[in-house]
């Protein structure tokens, strides 16, 4: 972590994470694709239920990335026992909180779907789909945590295998359950539940075999109460990011609802396509984050700078290319989902193109957030992680549709992206000026051991 050349190190850790994120996003997109064959209302139902998935991801990533961030620094400081306690705390907490989501979701399913923006025609389908999603919550939360723990412990390939297996299982089972077994939209959700169980089993296996340097000893859960504070502090940016993603999805569905099921379905498809592209950057960031944590913990501030700029350049070039491709083929991409609904194609094509233009800003946004999370700057990381889907998106979704109608709904996310990218710049300038004062050279250790304020 502190000796391998930065480009090789980041690439070796990011490649499995990128593949994992791509497969995860692909099976979300696959759900939408197969369900879209059932009709426009069914497509909208998946979009409404996505807010539930975002809540589950918020819990999973809060505990997973929070634990991984703390663990990376502890391992960089040679504190392996404390790292093991942190791993156990994150894992068992995820199972417990996932069970709470299951209980609440099954009790208040219909009320939650209405709150998340379901129309009267979408509501019964959303309720039907969400049942299995709520059942999958403990497994899904814990799988996110296990994947992050394996990456923090240097087992990025094992993390990739577990997450990718779940994605492959989901993609294979979707058409079988939906069409062959004639389960309809419930089949898509059941496929997700089965795939999460498969991922969970594979990701947990290395911990039973002790092939990971981190151990999930239940006795460690109650040994150090301060571990939970450290995990939540480090993971709060992830909670803000994913939590606001759920809230923003609900507000977006609510605004689109005024223009019918076609608008809700169109924005749902656009969200899935955009997420697939942006998942590349999130995967790169997940590979980049342990490098930052280890080297910051080891006071190798020059390597922290180098890892950031290398990842930023690679990510910007990659997303610029993908953005151009998606921009050009936007109508064709929308046609894949609802070829017989001109309203979905027209609304979605414009919204997708508006987001594609700004894809090159995503590396700056994602890496800035993950940088501050990895170096334990909680308030900076929380502000940046809240900005895109919260601080900027929520006021805009309340203002723009009232001013511009459906056009306002389509432009909310792109405008929020611009404002978030601008906000990142002053935070980065302050941080790297401080890091430059501390570094002894482009690759050498810092000459000053204190931490910048």
From TrEMBL:
Keyword Transmembrane helix: yes
Compartments, as annotated in UniProt: Cell membrane
Gene Ontology molecular-function annotations: antiporter activity; xenobiotic transmembrane transporter activity
Membrane topology note: Multi-pass membrane protein
InterPro entries noted in UniProt: MATE_fam (IPR002528), MATE_MepA-like (IPR045070), MATE_MepA_subfamily (IPR051327), MdtK-like (IPR048279)
One term under GO cellular component: plasma membrane
Keywords associated with the record: Antibiotic resistance, Cell membrane, Membrane, Transmembrane, Transmembrane helix, Transport
CDD domains: MATE_MepA_like
Spans traversing the lipid bilayer: 49-75, 87-109, 129-150, 157-179, 185-207, 264-286, 307-330, 392-412, 418-435
GO biological process entries: response to antibiotic
Pfam families: MatE (PF01554)
NCBIfam families, per database record: matE
Family under the similarity heading: Belongs to the multi antimicrobial extrusion (MATE) (TC 2.A.66.1) family. MepA subfamily.
Listed name of the protein: Multidrug export protein MepA
UniProt lineage: Bacteria, Bacillati, Bacillota, Clostridia, Eubacteriales
